Each structure stands twice: as C-alpha cells, then as structure tokens.
Structure of ASCH domain-containing protein:
Amino acid sequence: MAWAIFNGKDVENRTWSTKVRGRVKIQASKKFDREHYEFIWLNENRLGCQLPPRSEFVHGAIIGEVDIIDCVDKHDSPWFTGPYGFVLANPVLYAEPIPCKGRLGFFAPAL
C-alpha cells in the first residue's frame, strides 16, 4: 500500500531481493489493497500510524518518491514481514498525484 510509505513505513516487503538503490517513484496501485489495509488497521498502534477512510486513497497514479537505501532479509521495523525488505528513507509525497498506468516491479513511467 503506497500510502504507508508516506506515513511511517520504512521497509517495503517483497518476495525477491534487489540491488536497486537510490531515488524511486512510488506508484499507487489501480485497485484498492484490502489485505494491506486490514493489516495496518489491525496494527495501527504498533505501526504508529492511523488509516484515513478508504475514500481518501489515490489509485492509479504516482504519488511521491523515496530512497531505497538497502535490501535486507532481517529488520527490526514493525513493518518488516519479509522474506526481503527494501529499506526506505526520505519519502516525499507529491502535492498532486500524477496519473500513470503501473506495472509490476521497477519501471520507467511514461509521464
């Protein structure tokens, strides 16, 4: 859930590792992610964030950018569930989302 990156999430979980480091754009998926929404809702206190109503989420757009500073298989963050975690830093949420058709993995968006 892209929203979480701009609200305290410091590790992005994946089933695959990456050597990518540096600034990347964050794409909010076209569809609502019920599974991650419910995970955050059930763990708001532990994660240190509070979810907005579903209607406030942006979909199908680039909403900001963040630095990937590492890829780990263990981390103390309450956000880490593994098996791999992209360690994130310096998130910047854009004032206006940029509509963009997303894809899986890393890609160069046609803006």
Q: What stands out?
A: DSSP finds three helices and four strands in the chain.
